[in-house]
Amino acid sequence: MTRIVIIGGGPGGYEAALVAAQLGAQVTVVEQDGPGGACVLTDCVPSKTLIATSVRKQALLDASMLGVHYTGGSDGDAGVVHADMPLVNTRVKELAQAQSADIAARLAAEGVEVVRAPGRLVDPQVVRAGDRTIRADVVIVATGATPRILNGAEPDGERILTWRQMYDLEELPEHLIVVGSGVTGAEFAGAYRSLGSEVTLVSSRDRMMPNEDADAAEVLEEVYRRRGMNVMGRSRAESVKRTPDGVVVTLEDGRTAEGTHCLMTVGMVPNTAGIGLEEAGVTLDRGGFIQVDKVSRTSAPGVYAAGDCTGVLMLASVAAMQGRIAVWHALGEAVQPLRLATVASNIFTDPEIAAVGVAQKAIEAGEIEANVVKLPLATNARAKMQGFNDGFVKLFCRPHTGIILGGVVVAPRASELILAVSVAVQQRLTVDQLAHTFAVYPSLSGSITEAARRLMQPMTPSGI
């Protein structure tokens, strides 16, 4: 029986463990924080739970445009919709623990041993888990990553915080300054603005989310500004200091921004230091990320890696697939290498931004030839009914064959809508095939089939 030891219990670890157990391997997962790892306990699950609450509150605030008014106040005064942060944060943490418990139960049901201890690699076939030494035929490293800390802006857990510390606040921040306008910064800035905080978003680039679709980022920034957020572009933070009543963020150009709290969202660093990787022959890049190939192999024989510690698209879905691929390859099963061009991603803002396949910037740079169509969500009947005015559906296809290369959806629940485009990209469907697929009317998904119809090539009459 093949012995597999997995260091790290996040998506890259526990999904690998489940596949390995189902294939008959003897599996041990070494995880010091609990099943699910940081993804479930402090990162993805808690943040998306908080965001779900903020979206619900924003829906209440926007309900008046649909003719729904809240009059819950006394003496005829309008009631105030507010967030009970102790209750919100309690729910966030309880849900994360419940999800971790569900994963633990599933692992136990499949016969996977979980060791609650820090893990390190002694050599390619030996893992040290606390005081215990475990021999393995195959080792999978899935240790994740940690929020980056900048010199001059060290978190104190009270006023200057990482996102993992936000759920311990007893009150809603009066004025939250978010440093960093990437995906994490955009998500938390939007959530806390909807929950009722005054929010200042400090972006070092010309626009929010500079690595995402430009049209999508423009829509979101317009929504945020309309909701009262202060978005400071071309503003790189130099330091963050506590004041008697809050924080002051000093920018490189000498300007300052003052608030009650500061959230630092300036990237991640891999959890690869001090766990014996280089000593065991595992190659790290300059940033400390584990170098892997498309079947998750490292430079050390028998050692694989998955998830954020590899720096290959920091998404839970990618981590899980890397872990599964590692197991399939290690156990000699049929396996397809990881294809990043088919990975669907989502930004859990309000509205959400989902994408799959090629990016428009690659098309504009001449790297890929493609036809493009973009349909505003405001023309969709279901969107009109629900009062959704912001967003769009964008599709890309090859000019002659009509094969769908990718797409972007900006809409409520874009994370669900992108699946149709993701399937099309994965299966190399054409716009004709997608256009001839029935969509419910009225529905937001109808905009996807409509976009495909707009991209269909007209038939040339015979003999002309």
TrEMBL record:
Ligand binding (NAD(+)): 180-187, 267
Its EC number(s): 1.6.5.2
Disulfide bonds: 39-44
Swiss-Prot/TrEMBL keywords: FAD, Flavoprotein, NAD, Nucleotide-binding, Oxidoreductase
Top-level EC class as recorded in UniProt: oxidoreductase
Pfam families named among the record's database cross-references: Pyr_redox_2, Pyr_redox_dim
FAD/NAD(P)-binding domain: residues covered: 3-323
Phosphoprotein in keyword set: no
Domain Pyridine nucleotide-disulphide oxidoreductase dimerisation positions: 344-452
GO MF annotation, one: flavin adenine dinucleotide binding
InterPro entries the UniProt entry points to: FAD/NAD-bd_sf (IPR036188), FAD/NAD-binding_dom (IPR023753), FAD/NAD-linked_Rdtase_dimer_sf (IPR016156), Pyr_nuc-diS_OxRdtase (IPR001100), Pyr_nucl-diS_OxRdtase_dimer (IPR004099)
Keyword Coiled coil: no
Cofactor note: Binds 1 FAD per subunit.
PANTHER family: MERCURIC REDUCTASE, NAD(P)H DEHYDROGENASE (QUINONE)
Oligomer and partners: Homotetramer.
Record family assignment: Belongs to the class-I pyridine nucleotide-disulfide oxidoreductase family.
Name of this chain's protein: NAD(P)H dehydrogenase (quinone)
